[in-house]
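sry for the spam today, last one i promise. struct tokens for design, 259 residues
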């Protein structure tokens, strides 16, 4: 990671939807080839934040920049993986993975699609439809579709929450390997799982709300490559986990005080 080069910059980002103040004054950066995990209390605006970065929601105040470009709408420079797959049910696995490329008229990348299908263990299922797939396979398709665009920024909205524990660990490792291989890609991951955040992230941001504000921002001092076992056995794990839980609990207490 090049800590000197900022890839994504959120400057005093605020969002209101349906008369509700969802996010308030979020300022955050993501460096080049950095993986930032965002965790937080329920209703704190984590998914809203990610959708704003993707250019899918309007801002009440502030700005989002990817490099020098201000993000005011969807861009092929950013790809998003959704919590509940977001696949087109009438398209095959291959057609789902190719979708973004075809929309842009980029039909010459068959080799890239073939490689992603192979990496995500989907080659044997390329002609199946989503209803014929397990949850883990559906999420692999969603990840492959996002990566087919070779994005500069990969956004992941709780991408492993809808699968079983074993599939979750496999997908975590696959995403980490793909991210580590692509040195030109930064990533932002939303998760409700503290251990997942410690496993995946270079840096963890805790958002408490509503309205969502940054309650804690902390680097993960555990060297890569990581496994769930190596993370839990690292000398920094217990203190880091306690620090994150304390920030989450403080945010939960503030929510309860308002209800």
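last one done:
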């Amino acid at each position: 990671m090049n800590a000197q080069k900022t890839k994504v910059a959120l400057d005093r980002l605020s969002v209101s939807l349906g008369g509700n103040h969802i996010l308030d004054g979020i300022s955050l950066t993501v460096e080049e080839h950095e993986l930032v995990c965002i965790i937080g209390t329920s209703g704190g605006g984590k998914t809203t934040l990610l959708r704003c970065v993707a250019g899918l929601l309007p801002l009440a105040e502030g700005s989002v920049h990817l490099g020098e470009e201000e993000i005011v709408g969807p861009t092929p420079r950013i790809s998003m993986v959704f919590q509940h797959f977001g696949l087109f049910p009438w398209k095959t696995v291959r057609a789902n993975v190719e979708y973004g490329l075809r929309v842009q008229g980029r039909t010459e990348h068959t080799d890239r699609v073939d490689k992603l299908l192979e990496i995500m263990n989907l080659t044997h299922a390329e002609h199946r439809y989503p209803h014929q797939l397990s949850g883990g396979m559906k999420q692999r398709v969603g990840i492959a579709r996002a990566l087919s665009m070779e994005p500069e920024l990969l956004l992941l909205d709780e991408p492993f929450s809808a699968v079983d524990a074993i599939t979750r660990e496999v997908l975590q490792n696959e995403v980490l390997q793909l991210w580590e291989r692509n040195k030109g890609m930064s990533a932002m991951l939303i998760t409700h799982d503290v251990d997942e955040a410690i496993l995946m992230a270079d840096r963890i941001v805790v958002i408490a709300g509503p309205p969502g504000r940054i309650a804690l921002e902390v680097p993960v001092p555990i060297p890569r490559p990581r496994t769930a076992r190596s993370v839990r056995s690292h000398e920094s794990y217990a203190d880091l986990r306690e620090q994150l839980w304390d920030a989450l609990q403080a945010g939960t207490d503030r929510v309860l005080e308002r209800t």
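The chain has eight helices and ten strands. ok im logging off now
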